[in-house]
Write a structure and sequence with these properties.
Blueprint lengths: L3 E3 L2 E3 L3 E3 L8 H7 L5 E3 L16 E4 L2 E4 L8 H14 L4 E5 L4 H14 L3 E5 L6 H8 L1 H12 L6 E4 L7 H10 L4 E4 L3 E3 L2 E2 L4 E2 L6 E4 L4 H14 L4 E4 L5 H10 L3 E3 L3 H5 L2 H17 L15
Parallel strand pairs: 3-4, 3-16, 4-7, 7-8, 8-9, 9-10, 10-15, 15-16
Antiparallel strand pairs: 1-2, 5-6, 6-14, 11-14, 12-13
Length: 300
């Protein structure tokens, strides 16, 4: 009942661990896979990157504000992590990649594919790193990156988009035309907090990405708009704290749902509880499969 096909990937439940959540450990991935449909790695670049100095995370009553700065070991060192993860996992592994231009994206994505990744997610949308966010803001740059990747990769290509733009449906359509197999939305919302005593921004990077319940209605709107603009599947995420939020994203047009920030407040049990809630909703409303629910809010 809960199984889906996502751009050729077989998921036993429509729930995905998003990029940047819970570290890089294949052993840890193995331990949490039972309640997931797929796992997405942290975003990986060409070279090692330390990320931003602390403070990088601010807990808030309505979510989290973070500016990690894309810390990662670089793709050459990460290859062994991908290979080890593939030996341990029974579910698809999606490798998130970023770069300063289309050539860097391609280098990382190609090496990830060769190491055994089941799919690639091109991160075009980090809210506090101009290096990456410009690719979601400019249709020409988005097209260049996506067409370069789609023309070379044999595995599915998802493109992660930013809510910090005027017309997310247009960018999604550009990505589809350029060869994307799916859209991931949304990344975090660009935001800021100021220390009242120091009278300065709290985060070392000044700006960060807001996640959690506060951005859920924005995620619903973005996914609704993307669904009307493209025919490829959507991985929806943004402020999911319970099954009701997940069902709302599916009705708006998402084929699968990512859960991230809620792990920090509810633990890993959130995945099992959301899956059970989706199943219960389907049974009570007469849906025989997740696919029957996708985009129903657009009907009539």
């Amino acid at each position: 009942m809960l199984g889906i096909s996502l751009a050729g990937l077989k998921l036993r439940v429509p729930l995905i661990l998003p990029s940047g959540i819970l570290g890089l450990s294949p052993a840890f991935f193995q331990g949490i896979q039972s309640d997931l449909g797929a796992i997405t790695t942290k975003s990986i670049g060409v070279k090692p990157r330390k990320g931003n100095p602390t403070p990088t995370v601010i807990p808030l009553p309505y979510g989290l504000l973070n500016a990690m700065g894309l810390p990662n070991p670089g793709i050459d060192r990460y290859i062994e992590v991908i290979e080890e993860a593939k030996r341990r996992l029974e579910i698809p592994l999606i490798v998130s990649v970023f770069g300063g231009d289309e050539d860097e994206y391609l280098e990382v994505a190609s090496k990830a594919e060769e190491a055994g990744a089941d799919a690639v997610e091109a991160n075009l949308s980090c809210p506090h790193e101009r290096l990456v966010s410009i690719f979601s803001e400019d249709p020409l740059l988005a097209r260049k990156v996506v067409s370069t990747l789609s023309g070379s990769l044999k595995i599915p290509l998802f493109v992660k988009l930013s809510p910090n733009i005027g017309d997310i449906g247009r960018i999604a359509s550009v990505c589809e035309d350029a060869g994307a197999d799916g859209i991931t939305a949304i990344n975090t919302l660009r935001a800021m907090k100021i220390d009242l005593e120091l009278k300065r921004p709290i985060l070392s990077a000044r700006y960060g990405g807001l996640s959690g319940p506060a951005i859920h209605p924005l995620a619903v709107r973005c996914i609704y708009e993307i669904y009307e603009a493209v025919s490829i599947p959507i991985i929806g995420m943004g402020g999911v704290t319970g099954w009701e939020d997940a069902v709302e994203l599916i009705l708006a047009g998402a084929s699968a749902v990512g859960i991230g920030t809620a792990i920090s407040t509810q633990g890993l049990e959130i995945f099992r509880l959301v899956a059970e809630g989706i199943k219960g909703y389907m049974e009570s409303h007469g849906f025989k499969g997740v696919e029957e629910m996708v985009g129903v809010a657009h009907e009539g």
